[in-house]
Design brief:
Largest sheet: 6 strands, mixed
Shape: globular
Keywords: Membrane, Transferase, Transmembrane, Transmembrane helix
GO molecular function, one term: transferase activity
Pfam family, one: Glyco_transf_90
Strand order of the largest sheet: 1-3-2-4-5-6
Radius of gyration: 28 Å
Domain Glycosyl transferase CAP10: 179-391
Transmembrane segments: 16-35
Length: 391
């Protein structure tokens, strides 16, 4: 065998085999990812998932949000589950007139409630430590910097509350481009306030939620249903309001049923709603009280619970549920006389209502007689009682 002779070569794998194996693996991973996306969405508690764990007393069918391609949904889920969700007010043009000084005017009396909300921090201001401590009670954190919004998500909210609440912040940025200041806040999406004034007196924690009481530091914020509650087929406030007004005006005041009406779910750990069931006697108490079967309503898609079909009575009753109830705005929109059973909780807008001007206050200790008294007086004084109604 010479020095330059070719040795016998051993068999070799084709040169294209290794790249082919790599390509096949990548393709398999891609297919697996797409196959699993829907399962990931259903199990991930994020603002781009559906947050649809039912409340203990509401058995709702699952609501899916499938408007986007699976690939895009997967990217959002991964980003919002393990990174930070980033939202920006897109395609907004800021004109020179945006920053023109507007004529000054005194703030309406309604804003006194907002000043009262923030009063605990007038002298101390809100520090980074306040925010960090409030995180222990929050569902998510909203940070707005330079017109862009960032969200950190801590736990899954009931149904789609988180998604529509965050959507409300986005609408604020779109409606007032360049005018929303930088802010860092904690938000909780459960019903009842948690920052008790006695327990947290030494260090009040700034926590936003949908309602508060005089015994709590929680700061009220408009509830999610203003922007939609798809699980029970409630649309945006603009859409529902127009339909409710149309339904109310279909029947004149004198032709409306001369009774007080309430329809809702009493099985929400609400003593006042349970007591209200005892007033269901049109002859004795002048009231028609309807129990809402949430299970049956959910199975029928809430087709028999349209808000615009519930404005046929002269008087409508508002009764708090587990805490405050989103139903108040729909009751007020009916144009009937609103009978509010003395509330424990207050939401963002209800604090602007004035007793004996915007509504009739009902005594919870004399519930049925108080309702009867309001109905009898109203039917005997039709001209005066109409001033209580939002017509």
């Amino acid at each position: 065998m010479g020095l330059f002779s070719n040795p016998k070569q051993s068999p070799r794998s084709p040169s294209y085999l290794f790249p082919s194996v790599i390509a096949l693996c990548l393709l398999s991973l891609t297919v697996l990812l797409l196959y699993k996306v829907d399962d990931v969405v259903s199990r991930t508690g994020t603002v781009v998932g559906h947050n649809l764990e039912p409340t203990p007393w509401h058995v709702f069918p699952q609501k899916t949000f499938d408007d986007e391609p699976p690939q895009r949904r997967a990217v959002k889920i991964i980003q919002c589950s393990y990174l930070t969700c980033r939202y920006a007010a897109e395609d907004i043009t800021i004109s020179d007139s945006t920053f023109e000084k507007q004529p000054s005017s005194d703030c309406p009396d309604f804003f006194r409630a907002i000043r009262r909300d923030l009063e605990p921090w007038v002298s101390t201001r809100i520090s980074k430590k306040h925010i960090e401590e409030a995180q222990n009670y929050a569902a998510f954190r909203v940070v707005i910097v330079g017109g862009k919004m960032y969200v950190d998500y801590y736990y899954a909210c009931v149904q789609s509350r988180a998604m529509f609440t965050i959507w409300s912040f986005l609408q604020l940025l779109r409606k007032f481009p360049g005018l929303v200041p930088d802010v860092d806040l904690m938000f909780d999406c459960m019903d009842k306030p948690t920052i008790n004034r006695t327990e947290h007196q030494s260090m009040p924690l700034p926590l936003f939620r949908y309602c508060t009481t005089k015994e709590h530091f929680d700061i009220p914020f408009p509830d999610w249903s203003f922007w939609g509650w798809p699980e029970i087929n409630i649309r945006t406030w603009q859409e529902e309001f127009l339909d409710i007004k149309k339904g109310s005006r279909a029947v004149s005041w004198k032709d409306k049923v001369p009774l007080a009406y309430w329809k809702g779910n009493p099985d929400v750990a609400s003593p006042v709603r349970l007591e209200l069931l005892n007033c269901n006697d049109s002859g004795q108490w002048g009231a028609q009280i309807m129990r809402q079967d949430w299970g049956e309503a959910a199975r029928s898609g809430f087709k028999l619970s349209k808000l615009s079909d519930q404005c046929n009575h002269r008087y409508k009753i508002y009764a708090e549920g587990y805490a405050w109830s989103v139903s108040l705005k729909y009751i007020l929109a009916c144009g009937s006389v609103t009978l509010i059973i003395s509330p424990q909780y207050e939401d963002f807008f209800s604090r602007g209502l004035i007793t004996q001007q915007n509504y009739w206050l009902v005594d919870p200790l004399e519930l049925c007689p108080s309702i009867k008294s309001a109905v009898d007086w109203g039917n005997q004084h039709p001209i005066e009682v109409i001033s209580y109604a939002f017509s």
